[in-house]
IclR family transcriptional regulator (Mesorhizobium humile), 508 residues
Amino acid sequence: MSTVAKAISLLELLGGGAPEAALADLARAAGFDKATTRRLLVSLIAQGLVEQDETTRLYRLGAGLTRLALMREAQFPFLRMAVPVVEMLAAETGETVHLSEYSKRGLITVQVIESAKANRVSVQLGDVLPMHATASGIAFLAFAEERIRQGILAGPLPAFTPFTIGDAATLADHVAAARARGHSIGAQGFEEGVMSVAAPILGADGYSIGAIAVAAPRVRTQKADIERLGVIVTAAGREIGERLFGRLPGQKRA
Amino acid sequence: MSTVAKAISLLELLGGGAPEAALADLARAAGFDKATTRRLLVSLIAQGLVEQDETTRLYRLGAGLTRLALMREAQFPFLRMAVPVVEMLAAETGETVHLSEYSKRGLITVQVIESAKANRVSVQLGDVLPMHATASGIAFLAFAEERIRQGILAGPLPAFTPFTIGDAATLADHVAAARARGHSIGAQGFEEGVMSVAAPILGADGYSIGAIAVAAPRVRTQKADIERLGVIVTAAGREIGERLFGRLPGQKRA
DNA sequence: AATGTGCATTTCATTATTTGCAACGGCATT
DNA sequence: AATGCCGTTGCAAATAATGAAATGCACATT
């Protein structure tokens, strides 16, 4: 395990649990020696990615992370382009809408607008969605680079509910169906009682870079609703791609 | 130089220049060997902090950074609490307003609302503001922990304009005046022709954690304007602190 | 006040990772 | 065909990371 991997796993731990963590707890959770853990944290602090409370000695994520994320957004304005579309979709459907972006680890939820209804689906910002168990993931895979799709089909497919797709063949079928349809339909694969409809967001090269999804409680989703949502979600996904890269296919990021 | 410091310096380089960079350019800019640079990048890619274009082989910042920043925001909702106040202040003043957060390297600009006027001040999101040369920095220092203030006074004070405060004694005077007033007044210390008024945002322990500032072209700022702005900026800064930590002093982050 | 416990921090010899050189193969230009 | 540039890989040398143990600190208990 490389040193940078260790350092970043500490960031993940700091981000995952309580807002602040003690050295001993971090070391235990990460499986590193206390001394090692501390030296990694010191390095991260010097770079502004971690902060330490002067008095309690507790560690927390630092503002340097916000800075890096803002610099990225300045270079590739995914949120700036997508947010208005997500808002429109949320207003049009009245259900929870979430937006995600591809990362090595899965689809990262980068924006959520929750339905105003009492019975609604809740997704956490920053959550990583598994490719095989969510509508977003399947919509993504349907238009993803071959290499990525194969990687998921070949890898493990852990079950999150009794409805999670567990074998590669079925998953491949769902992906193919989503590709034909232009959007995917997720039925309780990640969370019970939740139906989702998702569409890919395509990059300049025509391959997926993310997904947009509408999620609603199962009780509120009739077949006709699903079909109606499918159409407008697909349009929303395409709209985001066009805002990001222009209407001309094959064009590169500015 | 620790390995993590090297890796993070690559992230800074990727964020600083063009949206995408080639290996050779990165290695040259960072001063690392080509092989070293590549291995660091591979580690960062495995963690999702960097992405590589499959065909062009160019590197760019990855979505994992957004994820970490979102997790931080979930733990410490600085933007969520501050943005409405910034918006109100922008509406009330009609000038550019920007919000910054303390980091080891300086004050990080985390939100900006630009004035609608044609002649307006422009600040970049993610920019790092020098403590000694900006109204925000001096407002921050006025209520910062003693150790941080001393560090700045002892350190170098590079000049950005002919108006930048260059010696520690003058800087200390300005900081003391800001402390007495509750807000700072910046006169072209960072950019010529720009006047700013800034107030600190105080943490649970009463020390600064950031700053909020109004920036306007010098031609539009009479003495009376400055005084008026000072009052409302100070109130905005206090409002943000209260939203974050509640009105009770000495209370810790949830 | 003294003792004990749990924590963060520092030290240092050992270990293992990181490093940089150099060589290779691909690709485009000359 | 030759040249130059780039990304990638192998390998011995150099350096940074490691973990056990010691130290110091603060707080709680006796």
